[in-house]
Automatic annotation (TrEMBL):
Pfam families per record: SRP54, SRP54_N
HAMAP family: FtsY
The EC number(s) this enzyme carries: 3.6.5.4
Annotated coiled-coil segments of the chain: none
Full protein name: Signal recognition particle receptor FtsY
Ranges of Basic and acidic residues composition bias in the record: 33-81, 138-148, 275-285
Top EC class for this record: hydrolase
Alphabetical UniProt keywords: Cell membrane, Cytoplasm, GTP-binding, Hydrolase, Membrane, Nucleotide-binding, Receptor
Length: 596
């Protein structure tokens, strides 16, 4: 078969040359037949086409004429592109086939008939793969160049129909019939041109046009046809343009690719991110503030809110005013509102009246007098905690309302004692709160103090008794017992605390040896009532004023001291283990009065 085709092809070539010379003007249509010849290969893809091909025997003529015709259509050289594509195109094949018959009458040249046999070879279809073979078609390209001269002549006529659109670029160079086909392939890539061309295709064969659109898909199959006729290759090349169509699809994505460029823009965003990262790094540096303020500074800062309000109000009272009854009354009101208590307020006003009544008084002088009087009130209560270690262990019972800082204070105190070489044991007497038990265990681990605890809800008194025995057995110097502080049920609270004290007394009549109450400095006047309650129930004999590092109501300490005259052993100025400081009357008085 291959030999047979070769013969046919060679024959076609010869004819082509001749025909070209003759047909320069009229023959354009014959090319369609040539396309049919090409179909034999295309047939591989579609048997129907093969059948049609048989009919248009014109295969041979197509080879030779094909080019001429193409030129004619090509005249559409521009148009030619679409047509060939159409013909080569899938459906177009049929359409073309039909068109071919029209041409056939003119070129009924029998020779092609033999070509028909090859068509039956649809067996070839198996060869469809050879599609790539179309490339070899390129060889024929040179040949087409020869015919080129005639093509131009034919082109003009066809041009009218297809016209313009394709004419643009390819037409000029390829003007020669073959040329257009080749260039078409390239131009076809620019899809835009190719698309318009198909539209024009219709003119030649009325039917073709309709089919032309479909061809677009066909192209792929068309290429194979080209192989058989090396000469026909030019038109075949036209089908090749079809490939460009897919290219279009690819091209489309390209624009999408265009967006990527904007992505680079985000790069600056990355820069921004880097900045953010830096910012994050900065906060990390924050921890550096290792330089910790002294407890006094913290207390002063904590009391600053109290002192600012107090001193500000004092200044407001004594601005350009002489000390008289009205100013003294105003000052008394200011001090009472500062939680210092009536007793302390009167001490201050009496002191001022005794020494400065009727005279101009500055707010600084008033604050100095106030500091002095407050210190006088606090000095008696500002005593250090003394532990009688003749009691082994010395039992410290810690009481107070929930949240006032009992557990925290126990931890801080245990730290001080263990640091001082004392052997400490802790007892989790707040059996109503699991969190309280766990919190105390944490403090025990931190201070290396054993913790005696029981299940949640266990009897607090029983726990205290067990802890006392264990502390004795362990030879502990100090046993610190935590308790609950549920004021919402005073009766139950009183009963529990009384029971604890009674039980401890069984082991040591003097136990508990120290009963500390934690008082939240932020509580205000209610703290006075709390101290009264716990003093009566548990026999509180000492106070720890907590949270003085952040309150505007530190004056309550003065009121409590003046009213209850209970020792104030420590003040809490923070949540850390070393934020428990001995209470100093003078420092506290100067701090709250805003005196340097
Ligand atoms: N700023 C500050 N916070 C404190 C101080 N003392 C305790 N706290 C905090 O106050 C909260 C309550 O402390 P706790 O020790 O649990 O008080 P509690 O009386 O044992 O409370 P309950 O276990 O519910 O009975 C915790 O968040 C402590 O960290 C202090 O002196 N200053």
């Amino acid at each position: 078969m291959a030999g047979f085709f070769k013969k046919i092809f060679s024959f076609g070539k010869k004819e082509i040359v001749e025909e070209r010379v003759d047909e320069t003007a009229p023959l354009p249509p014959i090319r369609w037949d040539a396309l049919d010849t090409l179909r034999p290969e295309a047939e591989q893809a579609e048997p129907e086409h093969l059948a049609r091909k048989q009919e248009p025997a014109p295969h041979p003529p197509l080879d030779g004429e094909g080019r001429h015709e193409v030129a004619g259509r090509g005249d559409g050289a521009d148009v030619g592109h679409p047509h060939p594509r159409a013909t080569l195109g899938t459906s177009p094949i049929e359409g073309e086939v039909e068109a071919a018959p029209q041409l056939a009458p003119e070129e009924p040249q029998p020779e092609p008939a033999p070509t028909i046999p090859p068509t039956p070879e649809p067996i070839v279809p198996a060869e469809p793969e050879p599609l790539p073979q179309p490339q070899p078609e390129e060889e024929p390209r040179p040949e087409p160049e020869k015919p080129e001269p005639p093509a131009p002549e034919e082109v003009p006529p066809a041009q009218p129909g297809p016209t313009p659109t394709p004419a643009p670029e390819p037409a000029p160079q390829e003007v020669p019939v073959p040329a257009p086909a080749q260039p078409d392939i390239e131009p076809s890539r620019p899809e835009p041109q190719l698309q318009p061309a198909p539209v024009e295709v219709p003119p030649p064969p009325s039917e073709v046009p309709a089919e032309t659109p479909a061809p677009i898909e066909v192209p792929p199959s068309a290429p194979p046809a080209v192989e058989p006729s090396a000469e026909i290759s030019p038109p075949i090349r036209q089908p090749a343009p079809i490939e460009p169509q897919p290219i279009h699809a690819e091209i489309a994505p390209e624009p999408e690719l265009v967006p990527p460029p904007p992505k680079p823009a985000p790069s600056p965003g990355k820069v921004t991110v880097a900045k953010k990262v830096e910012q994050k790094a900065e906060p990390v540096k924050a921890p550096e503030p290792a330089p910790r303020r002294s407890w006094f500074q913290r207390m002063r800062d904590g009391l600053a809110r109290s002192s600012r309000e107090l001193t500000g109000n004092i200044a407001g009272v004594f601005t350009k005013r002489k000390l008289d009854d009205d100013t003294l009354q105003d000052l008394e009101d200011v001090l009472i509102r500062a939680d210092l208590g009536v007793e302390t307020a009167l001490r201050v006003t009496d002191s001022l009246a005794a020494s400065r009544y009727g005279r101009d008084v500055s707010d600084a002088e008033v604050r100095a007098v106030m500091a002095a009087e407050v210190e006088k009130v606090l000095t008696p209560v500002a005593r250090p905690l003394e532990l009688d270690l003749s009691h082994k262990p010395h039992v410290v019972l810690v009481v107070g309302v929930n949240g006032t800082g009992k557990t925290t204070t126990i931890g801080k105190l245990a730290a001080k004692l263990t640091d001082g070489g004392l052997k400490v044991m802790l007892a989790a007497g707040d059996t109503f709160r699991a969190a309280a038990i766990e919190q105390l265990k944490i403090w025990g681990e931190r201070t290396k103090s054993p913790v005696v605890a029981s299940k949640l809800g266990a009897d607090a008194a029983g726990l205290a008794y067990d802890a006392f025995e264990k502390a004795k057995e362990a030879g502990s110097d100090v046993l610190i017992i935590d308790t609950a502080g549920r004021l919402q049920n005073k009766t139950e609270l009183m009963a529990e605390l009384e029971k604890i004290v009674r039980v401890l007394g069984k082991l040591d009549p003097e136990a508990p040896h120290t009963v500390l109450q934690t008082v939240d400095a932020t509580t205000g006047q209610n703290a006075l009532n709390q101290v009264e309650i716990f003093r009566n129930v548990a026999g509180v004999n000492g106070l720890v004023m907590t949270k003085l590092d952040g309150t505007a109501r530190g004056g309550i300490l003065v009121a409590i001291a003046a009213k209850h005259r209970l020792p104030v052993y420590f003040i809490g100025v923070g949540e850390q283990v070393d934020d428990l400081e001995p209470f100093s009357a003078s420092e506290f008085a100067r701090a709250i009065a805003g005196v340097a």
